[in-house]
Design a protein that fits this description.
Strand content: under 5%
Radius of gyration: 18 Å
CATH topology: Fumarate Reductase Cytochrome B subunit
Distance between the termini: 9 Å
Shape: elongated
Strand order of the largest sheet: 1-2
Number of helices: 4
Order of helices and strands: HHHEEH
Structural class: mainly alpha
CATH class: Mainly Alpha
Length: about 180
């Protein structure tokens, strides 16, 4: 298996980044919707901080993936792909990148503006933002809206992959499998 993409398949680096980010995003969406329900203050604090640190990790990983994508060939779509399908494919992928950059940034801004920066081994990872309740609320509203947008994008993305595998029976899904 090649590290780099080819005209017909994604390389192992693109595949690894894709599946690692996908796993982290799905876990983060699930945890994000339920972590406010945790009754134990100490456990809740640990879960919130872990959520923030994984969010920052996703930000770094998606930036690496964007750089990798820009420096590697993109496998071609099947020749019978309709122009509107190419447009939808491009739009969904663009929105994934935009959301996966904006969502952790919104969470980081909201956490910093609330005075609850992510921390690792006692080191706070904040932004140069003063405490600000209005900014906190706005950032977390954006964070939540992006979460719902990601759920929609994931649904479209998985649906399209299954359509290609089960109905069109082409190799679109297989070229991203390990």
């Amino acid at each position: 298996m090649s590290l780099r993409n080819t005209a017909f398949s994604y390389g192992s680096i693109a595949k690894s980044l894709h599946w690692l980010i996908a796993l982290l995003v799905i876990v983060m969406l699930c945890v994000g919707f339920f972590m406010g329900d945790i009754k134990s203050e100490s456990l809740q604090g640990m879960v919130y901080n872990t959520h923030k640190l994984i969010g920052l990790s996703i930000l770094v990983l998606i930036l690496l993936r964007a750089a990798w994508t820009l420096t590697n060939p993109k496998p071609v779509l099947p020749p019978d792909t309709q122009p509107w399908q190419r447009d939808v494919e491009w739009t969904v992928h663009f929105l994934f990148y935009a959301c996966l950059i904006a969502m952790p940034l919104a969470g980081w801004i909201g956490s910093t503006a609330a005075g609850y920066m992510p921390h690792l081994w006692g080191i706070e990872i904040g932004l140069p933002i003063a405490k600000n309740k209005l900014l906190t609320n706005a950032a977390f509203s954006v964070h939540t809206a992006i979460a719902w947008t990601l759920i929609g994008l994931i649904t479209v993305h998985v649906g399209a992959a299954l359509y290609h595998y089960l109905i069109k029976k082409d190799n679109i899904l297989q070229r991203m499998l390990p």
